[in-house]
């Protein structure tokens, strides 16, 4: 047990590393599944082939990202059993059923229709294929619903009781557990972030191809659709983030203190610290650039509203302020840049120069990974800001870890780092290679399944023209 502190740190690093990788893939697939549904729906409604060409272009990328998300997600359950066995034992009666609901609803729904979506375009009717695409998009939403419910319960636990064995169990109402106080805010904020992540990836790909050939109608179409999404959803996301922040202030005030860099209480209005270097040893933000009383105005809608600081909280309950402080600013800064790009695209559209202004295309290209960086910064803000608690106010992270020796955790951490960078690095490079190719007039669909994969009846016998697509 003398190795526990070192093992605890390594276990936290391992989980942070693997979940960071995993979180990026659902952030893309949630939005991309809905984008594919929109493209196919518009194709069915208008008959415009450019929509179908874009559908076939992006479905190949979706399939790869979806597969990497599934594979990286399996590791999460592995770590619950190895590095976080105490947490699994204590919280299992609540966490386990919610995760099971995710499998029984979202995963089964996605698994049931994903094959039809990927390989059924020439094998089922158009309406049935569109239904399959809608079901996959719905499945990604349902999956996010359950996972975020689990995470939100850990942030703002509700509806629980503790039995004689020290385990968290339902107090009688699963609705109180599922719809805990922070869940609705976290759900809409995270889903809109996923849609923005996809929009800026699509916009960057469109901008890349417009810089090469501004007359490409498919590049124009994807860029236009992405910029509409940026112009509408980015300002909405800022509003949703404000609501989420007010909810966090109510239920997790210490996290907000770290986000704002408020080491000291401010009885007559707290300043908004724009930048600075958090100094936890001295309890202050060095070289702070701040606007007096603006934090009180934003958080409590009153310039003179008092704001408590970390000086009112035991030091043992302080989160790592520096990491939370900067992750929050990265997320917010990127959010405003996204909204700025959306507004600029509206101006360019109004001037009839949406496909002509190269500086706008370069800006959109540079913002391509901004959604991924923002969701990762948001996750760091949420999870690191909750420390030192695994279950807010009830179970500490130090109490949640398995009694492992540090070398055992270090060995698995090194293995994960090597395998992840090798496997997922190759996958990302291949996705970038696909994105670098422009969508063409007759974009090919994902490869057809083998002729006898589904049974003894050759697929060619059902569709004689399928041989030409092999």
Q: How are the secondary structure elements laid out?
A:
Elements: H1 4-46, H2 49-82, H3 85-119, H4 126-155, E1 160-162, E2 168-170, H5 174-178, H6 183-212, H7 217-251, H8 253-260, E3 272-279, E4 284-291, H9 294-300, H10 321-350, H11 358-366, H12 370-384, E5 389-391, E6 395-396, H13 406-436, H14 459-462
Helix pairs in contact: 1-2, 1-4, 1-6, 1-12, 1-13, 2-3, 2-7, 2-13, 3-4, 4-6, 6-7, 6-11, 6-12, 7-8, 7-10, 8-10, 10-12
Structure description:
The structure is a single chain. With 470 residues, this protein is mainly α. Helix content is 67%, strand content 6%. It has helices at residues 4-46, 49-82, 85-119, 126-155, 174-178, 183-212, 217-251, 253-260, 294-300, 321-350, 358-366, 370-384, 406-436, 459-462; strands spanning 160-162, 168-170, 272-279, 284-291, 389-391, 395-396. The strands form 3 sheets. The chain has a two-stranded antiparallel sheet. Strands 3-4 form a two-stranded antiparallel sheet. A two-stranded antiparallel sheet has the order 5-6. Helix 3 packs antiparallel against helix 4 (126-155) and helix 6 (183-212) packs antiparallel against helix 7. It is globular and about 65 Å long. The N and C termini lie far apart (59 Å). It is found in: Cell inner membrane; Cell membrane. It is a multi-pass membrane protein. It holds the Pfam family Cyt_bd_oxida_I.
